[in-house]
Amino acid sequence: GLADRLQGTMQKIRGKGKVNEADVKEMMREVRLALLEADVNFKVVKDFVKRVSERAVGQEVLKSLTPGQQVIKVVKEELTELMGGEQSKIAVSTRPPTVIMMVGLQGAGKTTTTGKLANLLRKKYNRKPLLVAADIYRPAAIKQLETLGKQINMPVFSLGDQVSPVEIAKQAIVKAKEEHHDYVLIDTAGRLHIDENLMDELKDIKELTKPDEIFLVVDAMTGQDAVNVAQSFNEQLGLTGVVLTKLDGDTRGGAALSIRSVTNTPIKFVGMGEKMDALEAFHPERMASRILGMGDVLTLIEKAQMNVDEDKAKELEKKMRTASFTFDDFLEQLGQVRNMGPLDDLLKMLPGANKIKGMDNLSIDEKQIGHVEAIIRSMTLQEKEHPEVINSGRKKRIAKGSGRSIQEVNRLLKQFEDMKKMMKQFTNMPKGKKKGFKLP
Ligand code: GDP
Ligand code: MG
């Protein structure tokens, strides 16, 4: 990820103390390469790097004690900016039904997304959508939508595959009015490639139904291609939004960046799986984190900076880096961390934390903090610094001394162990070990 690359450079710079313009330039080269690797459009990268550079050579970075992190912060802010603000609004027609046309290439996820969107509209917004099967070409496309409709218990309008899509759309709207549906979601046909026949048909449907939204559904895995697809659909039809599907897969999400800036069309939703509840509003900031390849570590750093005094924060950072974290540190941090908000949230912000086995065990109930403190206070100095010496006899003594059960003592020891492992992972991340190869 981008963060990995930057941190390598950061490490070098850290040793030098102050950061200068040449250092920033070097970092920007890494940013550029990483974005291109993430399949972001060339022109977008160029403009982006220019903007970040301007900010990065400014005072906010050069004067900072942690220039590398500051650069990442600037990068993240600019990435977020590039993908627009909060854009997950959906049109509501003053004269119902609101018509939404779903368009895109074959296999992008139109039919699935039509089902998901209907589901979301009903569950979250209490709407009453009608699904319309207007893909008469792909074998079993109608059946597929009907099956999804059954799954989410929602009506699907279809006239078979012998009636033209335009006619289907027309009659669907009449029906929607009769039956007081407030949304009509039209699932249209796709092709493997953009062709004129497809576009003409879509234009006809648009002409007739005057849709309030035209959503392009694109597969995030297709990277640069997704951008070209978005551009030509936008030119021909005028899109109002993009749905980026298959983000649950192994993609960095570079397409998200380019689509937004090349077509100037907001990404409104992201598909996170095949299930009917796997559609989420698009959050530029989360996508920026994803592209950076990190958990929400910046928020964590910011919180630490706000709530912990600076010396302590540096000490904590160093300890996390070296993973030389003892129960005494833990105890001390508990107090400080308490001021930052729920512990679970904080732990989840650590990069890669969601991928770590046993992460669930890490969550600590706020109410249990007192118990945890009691247990730690019952440990000897040696036990606090070297918890591996805690055998069953010692566990019994600690449990007794703290008035907690042996199971609780065990749980805490396990949590502490997991936390240290997580910190180690955090420390190792910049070296690219996640991908399973070693650097020479
Ligand atoms: P269409 O040809 O555009 O209508 O595409 P479909 O809706 O038939 O989807 C094609 C395939 O992609 C199906 O197997 C879907 O289950 C799958 N799919 C759609 N959206 C997602 C998603 O967000 N994540 C994953 N993993 N699969 C998806
Ligand atoms: Mg389909």
TrEMBL record:
Key word Metal-binding present: no
The keyword RNA-binding is assigned to this record: yes
Record EC number: 3.6.5.4
Localisation: Cytoplasm
Source taxon at top rank: Bacteria
Alphabetized SMART domains for the sequence: AAA, SRP54, SRP54_N
Keywords noted in UniProt: Cytoplasm, GTP-binding, Hydrolase, Nucleotide-binding, Ribonucleoprotein, RNA-binding, Signal recognition particle
Catalytic activity: GTP + H2O = GDP + phosphate + H(+)
Binding-site list for GTP: 104-111, 187-191, 245-248
Domain SRP54-type proteins GTP-binding as annotated: residue spans: 266-279
InterPro entries: AAA+_ATPase (IPR003593), P-loop_NTPase (IPR027417), Signal_recog_part_SRP54_M_sf (IPR036891), Signal_recog_particl_SRP54_hlx (IPR013822), Signal_recog_particle_SRP54_M (IPR004125), SRP (IPR004780), SRP54 (IPR022941), SRP54_GTPase_dom (IPR000897)
PROSITE patterns documented for this protein: SRP54 (PS00300)
Oligomer status and interactors: Part of the signal recognition particle protein translocation system, which is composed of SRP and FtsY.
Similarity comment: Belongs to the GTP-binding SRP family. SRP54 subfamily.
Function: Involved in targeting and insertion of nascent membrane proteins into the cytoplasmic membrane. Binds to the hydrophobic signal sequence of the ribosome-nascent chain (RNC) as it emerges from the ribosomes. The SRP-RNC complex is then targeted to the cytoplasmic membrane where it interacts with the SRP receptor FtsY.
NCBIfam families reported in the protein's UniProt record: ffh (TIGR00959)
Free-text domain note: Composed of three domains: the N-terminal N domain, which is responsible for interactions with the ribosome, the central G domain, which binds GTP, and the C-terminal M domain, which binds the RNA and the signal sequence of the RNC.
Name of this chain's protein: Signal recognition particle protein
